[in-house]
Design a protein that fits this description.
Length: about 350
């Protein structure tokens, strides 16, 4: 299912049409109008999510191009592994509905706190970029406090129930909107949604719920990455503590060492220098491959400078797709800048030979 299908609009629909379709579908499936109907709740969530993507021009554009709203180079964006509808809860949908058609949905404290992202720059060698691989990344990050398990409360003293929300963590109220009255649920701002308040703060984290720790994270590198791409590892960033969710770890592909190759999209170009007699007579040559192996190739007789010999499927892996690009062996001819007298005589003779004459019109 894509967001256009969910809202029942076509790809060229205007912002106005999209909003209308969302309004109709959201009203029909709103949980307040369909109590206990889980299918309606699911539909409500999906239309809210679809509207969230399509009402934002840049996300809509990204979706139209890549079929996802992730960075095109991120791991989540690859191979359709990330469904745009996953990880979108009923609270998100209700909040979005209120923001779109009601008044402001309770402002601060209504969203789950998310920790900060961590960006790590990595350099790749050609084999990793071409064929993929794995890396172990070491980061120092805010991790759930080992003493209080992130609650921020001193374990011995414990916590007490939050009086503001009666320990529910959420406060519900009725809101009047242009479309009628709806129940909204917002996170309790006193306890931050936990339902409890510590009697005494944890001494290890001073109540923050997190501590700095080194961790090693294994990352799979897909084949075909380019400089400037990101790989996003969800939930591997800093933890904000106290019931929040961690941010992401973003791997930034900084530099790729292509060695003796040049990259042209998914293809690689290797420049093979041969001698002038070899260009005339042809021969066999060894060329390196991106995985460190080498390949024997035949250069036919009478091959000129600049000719490209294609070696299928020896190029870069294709990001998000199967298969590999090609390796082009580009012929370069070595011209000596100094020759011996005897060689000069040979060349003079060649120059006069009929096969070496250039016929000009
Ligand atoms: Zn603690
Ligand atoms: Zn509370």
């Amino acid at each position: 299912m894509n967001p256009y299908e969910v809202l029942g609009v076509n790809r060229s629909a205007s912002a106005e049409d999209i909003k209308k379709a969302y309004r109709t579908a959201a009203m029909k499936n709103h949980p307040d109008r369909n109590p206990g109907d889980h299918q309606a709740e699911e539909r409500f969530k999906r239309v809210a999510r679809a509207y969230e993507v399509l009402s934002d021009p840049s996300r809509r554009d990204t979706y139209d191009r890549y079929g996802t709203t992730e960075d095109p180079g991120s791991a989540a964006g690859m191979g359709g592994m990330h469904d745009i509808f996953s990880g979108f809860g009923l609270d998100d949908a209700l909040r979005a509905f209120m923001e779109n058609f009601g008044f402001s949905a309770g402002g601060s404290g209504s969203r789950v706190v998310q920790g900060e992202d961590i960006t790590v720059k990595v350099n790749l060698d050609l084999e990793e970029a071409a064929l993929g691989g794995s890396r172990e990344i070491e980061v120092e990050k805010n991790t759930v406090c080992s003493e209080c398990s992130g609650t921020g409360a001193d374990k011995a003293s414990g916590s007490e129930s939050c009086r503001h929300c009666n320990g529910m963590g959420k406060v519900s109220s009725i809101r009047n909107t242009l479309l009628g009255s709806f129940r909204t649920v917002t996170q309790c701002h006193v306890c931050g949604g936990r339902g409890t308040i510590p009697k005494k703060l944890c001494s290890n984290c001073r109540g923050r719920g997190f501590e700095k720790r080194k961790s090693t994270i294994a990352v799979d590198l897909p084949a075909g990455l380019s400089e400037g791409h990101y790989i996003r590892l969800r939930g591997q960033g800093h933890h904000p503590g106290q019931g929040g969710v961690p941010g992401d770890l973003k791997l930034f592909i900084n530099e790729i060492d292509y060695g003796p190759f040049r990259r042209e999209g998914d293809n690689l170009v290797y420049s093979l220098t041969i001698s002038y007699p070899q260009a005339v007579l042809g021969g066999e040559f060894s060329v390196p491959l991106p995985d460190g192996d080498s390949l024997q190739i035949k250069v036919g007789s009478g091959t000129g400078a600049g000719v490209r010999i294609k070696q299928k499927h020896h190029g870069m892996g294709r990001l998000n797709r199967r298969g590999r690009g090609d390796l082009f062996v580009e012929i370069d001819i070595h011209v000596p800048d100094k020759v011996k007298r005897s060689e000069k005589e040979l060349l003079k003779k060649l120059e006069e030979s009929p096969s070496f004459k250039i016929k000009r019109k």
